[in-house]
Design brief:
There is one protein chain. With 485 residues, this protein is of the alpha/beta class. Helix 8 runs antiparallel to helix 14.
Length: 485
């Protein structure tokens, strides 16, 4: 579905255009760097960023969010490019888009409900650290003059918004780029520039079909890569959506966003670009600069292409010191500092989940694996918490009758604890009542455990009564129990 509502495009024109210009500039060195990671020409990343940004502006579900070529996706392409070449990457990119569209219609984004806040914080903080670390190689190449320009750029970025009246009108990162570039030109400073990162494309992207055999063998080659790319892409996109929603205090349609990412990757693949997804860093730049509509995303994509194709001789002289300063700001803005200050007051389990997510992402550079480990840790801690709330109270009515009051969430983790609370050897026992008024049975493991209890009592000829079972638990008993009637 193409979104053309006026309020989603033209309610914040000046700020959106300026923010889009900043993002478009910042996308260029990143796109070139991500191309190098994937082992392809710079134009593959640049074309991808243009195609994805423009397509998602019309098809996405989250206004003002930036999607383009990303480092997380580039890391997954290395083996495919080395083994089979660029054409197979383009085909995998198209298939990635198809998978994401299917995931959007299947509403896979609902799985985000299983990602706890601690996992989100861990993901974001790890990404912020990776963004900062990614600048270190460039910083190591800087001479003292470049260091001075970079530090001055940081001062501009943080000080300019404090200037009355005009501070909020023009995005500080754009001011940083313009001022640093102007000063470097005036003083003829010896600085590395965008041109040092690689060659820029000469022409506009054109439609092309991947030059590969269209058969089952090709599908088997690209399918594993496409599935991984689609998963990581949607995961990073959903995380970015959550962050942008929080910053702008608005909601968005995650399912539409999933489909939009799919359409964008299909366009990218057919136009000679690699797969991409939402970018947390650039999205933070965009919305932090005041952008709120789809216009900013469109401007970023179009401006990037115009600069690269028509003004590359000017673009080539932008100092890397200015762009590094911007990315350092992005890293510090992306990092959730409150997650550190709140560690003393939050439960230990939450802190462990966040730190585990950060550690895995930093060690593997695999965002999906980090989130998976975080979700698993959250699930384990939740199971332990639910298990601790489970209990059985034994009430002896008389010498021949006993009531067991069961409480809590009964599932595979707590089944053994419940079973051990029953006394099967009590003498003179004639009747046993199991009271489920304050309990809920969740799975077949719990049902099997209660079957064992009922069988043991039944073998002794003891009358068994089950009371207080809620409707859902009763339905589970009726479907899976061998002794319940």
């Amino acid at each position: 579905m193409i979104h053309l509502k006026r309020t989603e495009w033209f309610s914040n024109i000046r700020t959106d255009v300026l923010a889009g210009l900043v993002v478009g500039l910042a996308l260029i060195p990143e796109s070139i760097a991500f191309s190098a990671i994937a082992g392809v020409d710079p134009q593959v990343g640049l074309y991808a960023s243009f195609c994805i940004a423009v397509t998602i502006a019309f098809m996405g579900g989250r206004p003002a969010m930036i999607s383009a070529a990303t480092g997380a996706m580039a890391l997954l392409m290395i083996t495919l490019v080395k083994t089979h070449g660029l054409q197979y990457l383009l085909a995998a990119t198209v298939l990635t888009g198809v998978i994401q569209i299917i995931a959007g219609y299947c509403k896979v984004a609902r799985l985000m409900r299983f990602v706890s806040q601690s996992v989100v914080y861990g993901f974001v903080n790890a990404l912020a650290i990776l963004i900062f670390v990614a600048q270190i190689p460039e910083i190591k190449l800087m001479n003292p003059v470049a260091w001075g320009f970079m530090l001055f750029g940081l001062v501009l970025i943080y000080a300019f918004p404090l200037i009355p009246q005009i501070g909020k009108l023009i995005p500080a990162p754009l001011v940083c780029i313009v001022v640093i570039s102007f000063l470097a030109w005036i003083f003829q400073a010896d600085l590395r520039t965008v041109s040092d990162l690689g060659s820029l494309p000469e022409t506009l992207p054109i439609f092309l079909l991947p030059n590969i055999p269209f058969n089952l063998e090709t599908l088997m080659i690209i399918l594993p890569y496409a599935l991984t790319l689609a998963t990581v892409g949607l995961l990073e996109t959903m995380m970015t959506t959550t962050i942008v929603n929080d910053i702008t205090e608005t909601e968005s349609d995650r399912h539409v966003e999933c489909r939009g990412q799919g359409y964008a990757n299909i366009v990218s693949g057919f136009m000679g670009g690699m797969a991409g997804c939402a970018m947390i860093g650039q999205s933070v730049i965009n919305v932090s600069s005041g952008a709120r509509t789809r216009l900013s995303t469109l401007v970023a994509g179009v401006f990037l292409l115009c600069l690269v194709v028509f003004f590359k001789s000017w673009l080539a002289y932008i100092p890397m010191a200015a762009l590094v300063a911007i990315m350092i700001m992005v890293a510090f803005t992306t990092f959730n500092w409150s997650s550190l200050t709140q560690m003393r007051t939050k439960p230990m389990a939450s802190n462990i989940v966040m730190l585990a997510t950060i550690t895995v992402v930093l060690i593997t550079h695999n965002l999906a694996l980090g989130v998976l480990i975080g979700v698993l840790c959250s699930a384990i801690f939740l199971a332990k918490k639910l298990e601790s709330a489970v209990g059985v109270e034994k009430i002896e009515v008389n010498d021949t009758e006993v009531i067991y009051k069961i409480r809590g969430q009964i599932f595979f983790s707590s089944a053994e604890k419940i079973y051990s609370a029953f006394d099967f050897n009590q003498p003179n026992l004639k009747k046993v009542t199991l009271d489920f008024e304050h309990a809920h049975v969740w799975d077949v493991t719990a049902i099997g455990m209660f079957d064992q209890i009922l069988e043991k009592f039944a073998k002794r000829g003891i009358i068994i009564q089950l009371i207080g079972i809620n409707e859902k638990s009763q339905s589970l008993f009726q479907k899976h129990s061998q002794t319940y009637s």
